Task: inverse folding
């Protein structure tokens, strides 16, 4: 079965959507992403939609769901590269994508995540060089 | 529908060349001939072709409705004729008269063919009259459509030229709007702003409306929609230059700008924008 | 008003909805719609197509290229023999389905179109006709 690949880059997961997804593919992506965040302990998720020409309410909800589930798993989501025509249509549709941060491209998105995401290894153990365990 | 006993199609076919000759003579005699614009050989050719196509269409199709496929070649010919005559400098009336001038010679031939049968003559004359009226009016319609298309094209060009998007700094765009905004113009401008945001990778866009005297609900809504769309794309918008009158209108209209950064002047907005992209303006060290 | 082209597509699976999107995109581009308008048309088609599939339990869409004398347009007519819409007000509101089948978000889709008409009868089915003019 076809799946959208999820790339791991350090503590970030990057998903680049390049096909016109049918509903099952979108649901599979949602599940795969949630599973991978949990398994890898990723702190950030970047969803690149710069090649996506249509975002309807189903995809919009998928994105909002991903962001919500990621947050529960202590990860931030940033949506990048939305095309102007898509943005205008989403606004007209009344879809606001609550809880989803946005950035112009992958580079800006990563900068945003780096600034937002707190480092994991901070705590009492550091002062005398012990690892947290 | 074609009246079962209309002889018009048959007469047109049988006496086509004679009708044509009478018609051309009539046109050459007329005051509106415009020999300066259309030389005689071309007039002859246009008349010949028109009459031939009309005769054929009358034989195949309806005499009361000219929308069907039987009349398509006539419509196409009139389309070409209208266009070429318009570009040659003919007025729409002059082009319509080309069609109407066929009436007299046609009626003369119909009268001959009627042989005293007044009722049949009346029917045939009426059919011919209806057909030629419709065709004449069709040329006027085409002329009007052509003008409308031209105006729409020029309007579009004007819209695109009138509001350039300016790059103030790396990552900061400005859209200085001047003059009255109407819904169509605002929409075009806003779409081009969003496009430029993507092209330049700008994180901040300043929409300056210092030069805008009034704003109505539709325009305010377009502005809001654009700001929301820009945010979805990952860019922030600042509105600057809101005059007191416009501020009052916006409040009065109940438009909610609470989620939008607004600044009194473009300069203030620019300062905020620079801060957003992580830049600071410093005074250069004094030269000693 | 003349119909320049006419095609009916079955909607029985989610890949059928993808096909509908493709056809609408290609016809809209051929009609010369701007990129934004094309996107609105395809997004609207996607919304309505999915409603037909999920809520209507499958149906069909008739896509037509129209010529109204002075302007050209694209018309989409979605039909199904599904359960129908009991609460039209809710369906046309801006709420989106949370999976319980309420709120089909048709209000938003309506805003994407020039003309929008919906007829539905409980137990009989639903018919949505949407047109976008150039």
Result:
């Amino acid at each position: 079965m076809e799946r959208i690949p999820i790339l791991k880059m350090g503590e970030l997961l990057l998903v680049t959507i390049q096909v016109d997804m049918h509903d099952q593919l979108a649901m599979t992506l949602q599940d795969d992403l949630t599973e991978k965040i949990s398994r890898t302990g990723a702190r950030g998720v970047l969803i690149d939609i710069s090649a996506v020409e249509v975002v309807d309410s189903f995809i919009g909800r998928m994105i909002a769901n991903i962001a919500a589930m990621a947050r529960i798993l202590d990860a931030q989501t940033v949506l990048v590269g939305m095309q102007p025509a898509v943005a205008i249509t989403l606004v007209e549709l009344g879809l606001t994508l609550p809880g989803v941060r946005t950035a112009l491209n992958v580079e800006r998105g990563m900068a945003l995540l780096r600034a937002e995401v707190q480092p994991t290894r901070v705590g009492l153990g550091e002062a005398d060089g012990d690892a947290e365990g | 529908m074609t009246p079962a006993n209309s002889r018009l199609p048959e007469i047109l076919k049988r006496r086509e060349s004679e009708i044509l000759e009478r018609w051309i003579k009539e046109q050459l005699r007329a005051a509106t001939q415009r020999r300066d614009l259309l030389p005689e050989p071309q007039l002859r050719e246009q008349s010949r072709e028109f009459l031939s196509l009309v005769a054929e269409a009358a034989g195949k199709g309806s005499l009361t409705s000219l929308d069907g496929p039987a009349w398509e070649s006539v419509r196409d010919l009139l389309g070409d004729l209208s266009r070429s005559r318009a570009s040659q400098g003919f007025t729409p009336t002059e082009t319509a008269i080309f069609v109407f001038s066929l009436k007299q010679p046609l009626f003369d031939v119909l009268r001959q063919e009627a042989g005293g049968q007044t009722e049949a003559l009346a029917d045939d004359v009426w059919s011919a009259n209806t057909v030629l009226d419709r065709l004449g009016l069709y040329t006027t319609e085409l002329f009007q459509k052509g003008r409308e298309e031209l105006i729409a094209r020029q309007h579009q060009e004007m819209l695109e030229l009138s509001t350039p998007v300016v790059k103030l700094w790396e990552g900061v765009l400005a859209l200085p709007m001047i003059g009255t905004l109407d819904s169509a113009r605002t929409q075009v401008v806003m779409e081009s702003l969003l496009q430029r945001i993507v092209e330049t990778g700008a994180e901040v866009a300043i929409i300056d409306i210092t030069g805008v005297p009034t704003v109505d609900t539709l325009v305010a809504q377009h502005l809001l929609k654009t700001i929301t769309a820009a945010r979805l794309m990952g860019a922030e918008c600042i509105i600057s230059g809101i005059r007191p009158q416009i501020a009052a209108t916006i409040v009065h209209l109940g438009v909610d700008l609470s989620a939008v950064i607004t600044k009194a002047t473009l300069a203030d907005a620019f300062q905020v924008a620079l801060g957003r992209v992580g830049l600071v303006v410093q005074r250069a060290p004094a030269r000693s | 008003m003349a119909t320049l082209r006419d095609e009916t597509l079955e909607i029985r699976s989610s890949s059928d909805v993808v096909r509908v999107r493709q056809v609408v995109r290609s016809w809209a581009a051929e009609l010369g719609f701007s990129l934004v308008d094309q996107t609105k048309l395809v997004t609207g088609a996607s919304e309505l197509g999915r409603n037909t599939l999920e809520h209507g339990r499958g149906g069909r869409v008739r896509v037509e290229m129209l010529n109204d004398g002075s302007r050209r347009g694209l018309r989409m007519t979605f039909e199904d023999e599904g359960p129908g819409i009991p609460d039209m007000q809710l369906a046309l509101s801006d709420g989106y389905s949370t999976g319980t089948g309420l709120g089909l978000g048709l209000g938003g889709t309506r805003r994407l179109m020039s003309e929008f008409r919906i007829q539905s009868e409980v137990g009989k089915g639903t018919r949505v006709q949407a047109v976008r003019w150039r």
User: Anything to note?
Assistant: The longest helix of chain B spans residues 118-162. The mean pLDDT of chain B is 86. Strands of chain B lie at 166-169, 172-178, 204-211, 236-240, 261-263.
